[in-house]
Amino acid sequence: MAETERKTAVVTGASRGIGLAIAKRLAKNGYNVAMVASSAPEKNEDAVNEVKAYGVDAKAYQCDVADFDKVGETVAQIMEDFGGIYILVNNAGITRDGLMLKMTEENFDSVISVNLKGTFNFIKHCTPVMMKKREGRVVNISSIVGLQGNAGQVNYSASKAGIIGMTKSCAREFASRNITFNAVAPGFVETSMTAVLTDKQKEGLFELIPLKRYGQPEDIAGAVSFLCSDDASYITGQVLSVDGGMHM
Ligand code: NAP
């Protein structure tokens, strides 16, 4: 299909939480949205309808971001459905927490595969499309723990620090093609990912937030929206902390 006057954004992990907030914000900005999740599209009909409510086109794609070939097929399908890709937001992520001494190889591998290799997979398959048009915006969702580490999250913090290195290297490689790469590093955001923490853990984290409120998915979506806007056209290779001042 030929690209319509609306440009298209691909958002991974768009079925809920931060990814869904990003999808809705980009839809509000006028982009069509390809919403990727590992769950079946039938499960994500409500999320798709929330995005479509902004008057754009949206579609759910079932794809494990860790599966290189499946990501290739999914990007090809998105191209067929929407005709182009201007924005890529690598947001899909998982945690498998545990202290280093107890962390299993499987829990290390699965977090690296989804968070870090999943980001590589989508960049690998989307950038040829962007290069042809000589324009594109990539925003990778890192984390405060990728900047400062966290006990119990060796796998997750390594994946998120890796995303920062990947972002900066890609920023250098693709700058001449007018494709920017930036990362957003959220602090504590209220989603299903953090709902598993105990009240005591949450209270402890609250003490570390200078702005004295927990982050909301919309706080992250606002930063992504800015990095995809014309106002950010001269920004690449940066990590934007959105954490109420936790990391400074
Ligand atoms: P969440 O509520 O658990 O949502 C995760 C999303 O990723 C879901 O849409 C999930 O959909 C998708 N996903 C998981 N594994 C996938 C896979 N293998 N392939 C495709 N999609 C997959 O998490 P969140 O809190 O919104 O987090 C979003 C991002 O922000 C993550 O990268 C996370 O590391 C980062 N982050 C979050 C916080 C926080 O405090 N919440 C802080 C810093 C960074 P399905 O289950 O349907 O696949």
Q: Could you explain the architecture of this structure?
A:
The chain is an alpha/beta fold and 248 residues long. It has one domain (8-242): 3-Layer(aba) Sandwich (Rossmann fold). It has 8 helices and 7 strands. A 7-stranded parallel β-sheet has the order 3-2-1-4-5-6-7, sandwiched between helices. Helix 1 runs parallel beside helix 2, helix 1 crosses helix 8 (217-227) and helix 4 packs parallel to helix 6. The mean pLDDT is 97. The site of NADP nicotinamide-adenine-dinucleotide phosphate has 29 residues, from helix 1 and strand 2. NADP nicotinamide-adenine-dinucleotide phosphate binds next to helix 1 and strand 2.
Side-by-side strand order of the widest sheet: 3-2-1-4-5-6-7
CATH topology: Rossmann fold
Low-confidence parts, pLDDT < 50 over ≥5 residues? Answer: none
The bound ligands are: NADP nicotinamide-adenine-dinucleotide phosphate
Number of helices: 8
Helicity level: 40-55%
Shape: globular
Strand content: 15-25%
Largest sheet: 7 strands, parallel
Distance from first to last alpha carbon = 45 Å
Return Rg in Å: 17 Å
Give the strand tally. 7
H/E element sequence: EHEHEHEHEHHEHHE
* CATH homology superfamily: NAD(P)-binding Rossmann-like Domain
Main structural class: alpha/beta
Number of domains: 1
- The residue-averaged pLDDT reads 97
CATH-defined architecture: 3-Layer(aba) Sandwich
Using the coordinates above, name the CATH class.
Alpha Beta
